[in-house]
Design brief:
- It is a single chain.
- The chain is mostly beta strands and 153 residues long.
- It has strands at residues 7-11, 15-19, 28-33, 37-43, 46-49, 52-54, 66-68, 74-76, 82-84, 97-101, 112-120, 126-131, 134-140, 144-145.
- It is elongated.
Length: 153
């Protein structure tokens, strides 16, 4: 994982607990909700949020956003809950073979599965895919990686 470089991340499953410092011993102060994107600086296995306005997730426009006006809010950098958002992920094309991370609760949570991009999704930054003989629609770009890549590096 990169150290000290500001980068875009997304909450890709469940919700992520915000803490007042890096480490589980620090008090929780709120949550980042599924679908939220935010800027943070990785430090060890934690992400320090940068000052910013975090918009509500696309799937829940009625949800509240979050104002980060201090630099002591942290979230654990743990897959599959938190995923880096990569600049080149929007370049997938129909027919591309990629991997998708399972973000739904269950025994396969966090597992990478081979899939194929079918088409662009209905919303910006989403794709329709075919995975394990099923079509899945509007999967956000941060769920994908090129086979074998470690996009945390």
């Amino acid at each position: 994982m990169l150290q000290g470089t500001e980068r875009m991340y997304a909450v890709a499953s469940q919700q992520a607990l915000l803490r007042r410092g890096p480490g589980r011993e620090h008090m929780g102060t709120g949550f980042l909700r599924f679908g939220m994107r935010f800027l943070a600086i990785p430090e060890g296995g934690w992400l320090r949020l940068c000052p910013q306005s975090i918009r509500p997730p696309l799937a829940s426009p009625s949800a509240a956003g979050l104002e980060v006006d201090q630099e002591n809010l942290w979230v654990e950098a743990a897959e599959p809950t938190i995923r880096p958002v990569l600049e080149d992920q929007h370049r997938f094309s129909p027919g591309d073979k990629v991997e998708v991370i399972v973000g739904e609760p269950g025994p396969r949570l966090g597992e990478w599965l081979p899939c194929q991009i079918q088409s662009l999704g209905d919303w910006p930054g989403t794709y329709h895919i075919f995975v394990e003989n099923h079509e899945r629609n509007n999967i956000p770009m941060w769920y994908f990686r090129t086979p074998g890549d470690d996009d945390w590096a």
